[in-house]
Design a protein that fits this description.
Blueprint: H1 2-21, H2 27-72, E1 89-92, E2 95-99, E3 106-109
Antiparallel strand pairs: 1-2, 2-3
Helix pairs in contact: 1-2
Bound molecules: zinc ion.
Length: about 120
């Protein structure tokens, strides 16, 4: 979307220049050229706004990950049975890794079957 708005802005600037240069004293053409420049400005503004929207989407995804970690807080170490803190849980490529701060053991969690 950013590329599209940038190209549109460039086209509007070129058209605006053509109208202003080719106006030859005609107020209507000069006004249209200025309008095209304003349109280009709006497109550049919108182009700059869009990356901020994608950033908020990323933060929403991170919040979902955090709720997953909250559940993991109640887990205990397989080796020593100590309660695992949030810092000892690490998510890598979709897999959950545990590094116990109590006994120093590191292992990957495999979801146990429900039956
Ligand atoms: Zn442990």
């Amino acid at each position: 979307m950013k590329i599209v708005s940038s190209i549109t802005a460039a086209v509007l600037v070129v058209l605006g220049l053509i109208f202003i240069v080719g106006s030859q004293g005609m107020v209507a053409r000069l006004g249209l050229g200025i309008l095209l420049f304003l349109g280009a400005g709006v497109m550049i503004y919108l182009g700059r706004m869009q990356p901020q929207v994608t950033k908020t989407e990323v933060t929403v995804k991170q919040e979902i990950d955090l709720t997953g970690d909250v559940k993991l807080e109640q887990m205990t170490c397989n080796n020593c049975g100590a309660t695992l803190s949030k810092n000892s849980v690490e998510v890598k490529a979709g897999a959950i890794f545990i590094h116990c701060e109590h006994c120093g053991t590191s292992y990957q969690i495999e979801e146990a079957p429900k039956w």
